[in-house]
Amino acid sequence: MTLKEIAEILEGEILCTGDNEDLEITSACGSDLMSDVMAFVKNSAMLLTGLLNMQVIRTAEMMDMRLIVFVRGKKPDPCVVEMAKQKGIALVCTKHSMFVACGLLYSHGLTEGGNHP
Amino acid sequence: MSKGVITLSYEINANDFQAAGEASSTVKKKLKLLGIPPEAIRRASIAMYEAEMNVVIHGNGGVMNVEIDKSKIKMVFRDQGPGIPDVGLAMQEGYSTAPDRIREMGFGAGMGLPNIKRNADKLDIETVIGKGTTLTIEVNIND
């Protein structure tokens, strides 16, 4: 699933495209707890979250995640978008809730990127 | 690089959440440039980012020293915080003393030290109440 397809499914707005617009996303993780993302995500290139701060970008960077979707209609500050651009990370915002956004992507074939103990 | 060892050092400021993670980001870039295997980079990145956040949140600031040689990435974090009264308790998943403002940022869920341990090949914690904590983390490169 490409960035463009994900944005269409979520009726979202692409805030920045990252350094690879053709990136193929095969799994996703939805969480507002960044430590949980680092604890349980193994091979996910995409994060869905309701948090909007710098640490979301940092966490994605540390985990080699290339796309972050902000749910519940929230938009990050320009400085957060700028940091994502510097790191080559794509950003999308959607009006959908976390539950609905995850459900829409799952029903279109995206699977979990977790690695539960 | 002397004797095949690269050393890096960074200051970490207390409660500076704009810069928090910058040291880890810089080290991660260097590890990539050095051609370290991705799995070792991933484990070192998670461990050092969690440790850096701990210094920012709990440690009243401190320093991060990194040594990279052929066999391992060694990261030492020295903070000036209150120390950890019960290390065993702090190592339990879900135990946290972080205030609400930290939880609102997505941290303070009690996964920091467990995450560090999970990703480290060796973890040593020295803590003195009222003086600070030193965390020594090693991630092997040639597993």
Based on the model shown, name its key terms:
heterodimer, A: 117 residues, alpha/beta, Udp-n-acetylmuramoylalanyl-d-glutamate--2,6- Diaminopimelate Ligase, Chain: A, domain 1, 6-stranded mixed beta sheet, 5 helices, B: 143 residues
Describe what you observe in this structure.
The complex is a heterodimer of chains A (117) and B (143). Chain A has helices at 3-9, 34-40, 54-62, 78-87, 98-107, and strands spanning 13-17, 27-30, 46-49, 67-70, 90-93, 111-112. Chain A is an alpha/beta fold and 117 residues long. Chain A has a single domain, classed as 3-Layer(aba) Sandwich (Udp-n-acetylmuramoylalanyl-d-glutamate--2,6- Diaminopimelate Ligase, Chain: A, domain 1), CATH 3.40.1390. In chain A, strand 4 (67-70), helix 4 (78-87) and strand 5 form a beta-alpha-beta unit. Chain A starts with a helix and ends in a 5-residue tail after the last strand. The model of chain A has no long low-confidence stretch (mean pLDDT 91). Helices cover 34% and strands 27% of the residues of chain B. Chain B is globular, with a radius of gyration of 15 Å. Chain B has helices at 22-33, 38-57, 87-90, 100-103, 112-119; strands at 6-12, 62-68, 72-79, 122-128, 132-140. Chain B has one domain (6-140): Histidine kinase-like ATPase, C-terminal domain (Heat Shock Protein 90, 2-Layer Sandwich), CATH 3.30.565.10. By secondary structure, chain B is of the alpha+beta class. Chain B contains 5 helices and 5 strands; from the N terminus they run E-H-H-E-E-H-H-H-E-E. In chain B, helix 2 runs antiparallel to helix 5 (112-119). Classes of the chains: A alpha/beta (117), B alpha+beta (143). The interface between A and B is medium-sized, with 20 and 23 residues.
Total domain modules of chain B: 1
Number of domains of chain A: 1
Percentage of residues assigned to helices of chain A: 25-40%
Class by SSE composition of chain B: alpha+beta
Distance linking N and C termini of chain B = 23 Å
**Rg from Cα of chain B:** 15 Å
Strand order of the largest sheet of chain B: 1-2-3-5-4
Helix % of chain B is 25-40%
- Alpha-beta content class of chain A: alpha/beta
Count the E strands of chain A: 6
Outline of chain A: globular
The overall pLDDT of chain A, averaged over residues, is 91
Rg of chain A, alpha carbons? 12 Å
